[in-house]
């Protein structure tokens, strides 16, 4: 009858010893993996977010770029990381779209990740080289109709929202583009600026600075309403009614990360996004804050995955 006593005491001791460890999280730097190149839209938001979260958490949040054409390298690294709250991924709508194109991914977004929050969302911008003659969506469509494949589209990732936006535009306009894949928007910019490729759908945060400096020109935005941050440029929908494409930004940890640590990351990101520097960044770049709870983020991701899987299947799209 006395045997359970030491066992219970040992359990109580283990629990009491573990409690401070949980309470002290984080006690070392947190890695924020961005599965795309430096200089792209995800990277542009990740860096100020990491700075603000570092102040809030009292530990450095270090952004690490792990670029690949569709983000698989960075996503796989996080999926296989120790689920201790010290490795997270910040990605875009590609998080839910990529599985629609690939059935043999080395990770499963439903089983291998613990969503922290959907941080924000924004319409895309259609930007072009200053060497590209068309300056409107209609002129670009007319050029493609006159000669199939005459318009080169830079695709930051060959299976993400930017790729799908270009394919959707071509499908609705009844034209064919030449798609040129890049490992993120950052690597595409030199070729776009020099005129080696003609146009690109991108996030406002990474493209608008090039427009404002005169190195690129803005043709249109992809929301249903004009975007003030983009100078009220025309929308694609004004030429092709019903066209709509938006990007969103997600923060996630490996599956199995303790719920209290997921919650702490959520609360830190929520506070960070409300800091003046990030509020100004969001307003300047036409990004709308969402900050869903982990539970809401999980439901949103699943609905987006189902939607884009249907679009890819119904339109018989494939990776270029």
TrEMBL record:
Q: Which UniProt keyword terms apply here?
A: Signal
CDD domains per the UniProt record, alphabetical: PBP2_Bug27
Source organism's superkingdom? Bacteria
Q: What Gene3D superfamilies would the database entry show?
A: Bordetella uptake gene, domain 1, Periplasmic binding protein-like II
**SUPFAM superfamilies in the record, alphabetically?**
Periplasmic binding protein-like II
- The answer to keyword DNA repair applying to this record is no
Give the signal peptide as a residue range, or say none if absent: 1-23
Q: Does the keyword Signal apply?
A: yes
Family, as annotated: Belongs to the UPF0065 (bug) family.
Q: What is this protein called?
A: ABC transporter substrate-binding protein
